[in-house]
Specification:
Length: 256
């Protein structure tokens, strides 16, 4: 995550993978802040120790719900902070709510928070979550068409092509995605294009922004800069500089 923070991440398999894309645990070494990229998904965050703020608002125990992220969010934390979370696949949180999934019961979430106070670790957190996903009977999968469309957008399938690959009409899909996620398919397309550009900047430090724009489906470099700043709250150039500064600091620590 950053030089201030250690992040442990688990990508679920089996029953968990149908609903959850990531389970994570973070512990701070010093006071700091970190920008989290948006992905159009939702989540749950459990503060364990220390002070944690999301977009300058304190995250109060026992847990906080992260609604659909449409822009980058800033996490600020104290030197002793420990916090962990669940990142749901897009469309899933609304599905779990409709089906009264046991994970989202107030008692279940409180028990998870209490368990973390006794044993704060990624392994313990995964175990606390997994007990609520022994089967998928509480999910009726009425969101399968929306998930299929979004999966195509994640793979950068053009939106019009993604509509054509789906068994429902464009209007039906637009309505379903907006109802289940709070944002339109068009906005998902923007999010994932920026996400791809972010990864390209990270993987290719010397690549020109014009070439990155072309590779990631933007009309030109100004279009890349405008979209990147709107969603990430930072320009591509600033993001590249932060990456280089971070790598320089890490190199200095290794040489000491």
């Amino acid at each position: 995550m950053s030089n201030h923070l250690t992040l442990e991440l688990m990508t679920p398999e089996g029953n968990l993978a149908d609903s959850i894309q990531a389970i994570w645990y973070a512990s701070a070494h010093s006071q700091g802040e970190q920008w989290l990229a948006c992905d159009g998904a939702t989540g749950l965050v459990f503060p364990v120790t220390g002070e944690i703020l999301l977009d300058d608002k304190p995250l109060a125990a026992p847990y906080a719900v992260q609604e659909t992220s449409t822009q980058a969010s800033k996490v600020t934390f104290s030197h002793d902070a420990q916090f962990c979370g669940i990142r749901f696949n897009p469309t899933v949180l609304s599905e779990l709510k409709r089906n009264a999934h046991p994970l989202l019961a107030e008692q279940s979430l409180s028990e998870i928070a209490e368990g973390l106070q006794e044993n704060a670790s990624l392994a313990a957190f995964v175990a606390l979550i997994s007990r609520h996903f022994t089967d998928n009977k509480n999910i009726n999968h009425s969101n399968r068409h929306s998930k299929h469309l979004i999966r195509n957008l994640i793979e950068l399938t053009p939106l019009e092509t993604a509509y054509q690959l789906a068994p429902l009409s464009q209007r039906q899909l637009e309505r379903q995605v907006k109802d289940q996620c709070g944002v339109t398919p068009k906005y998902f397309e923007r999010i994932y294009r920026v996400k791809l550009a972010k990864q390209a900047i990270k993987d290719n430090p010397e690549m020109s922004f014009a070439d990155i724009a072309l590779e990631c489906g933007f009309t030109d470099q100004p279009h890349l800069i405008k979209e990147f700043k709107a969603i990430m709250h930072i320009t591509p150039a600033k993001y590249r500089k932060l990456l280089k500064d971070s790598q320089t600091k890490q190199t200095k620590l290794i040489l000491r």
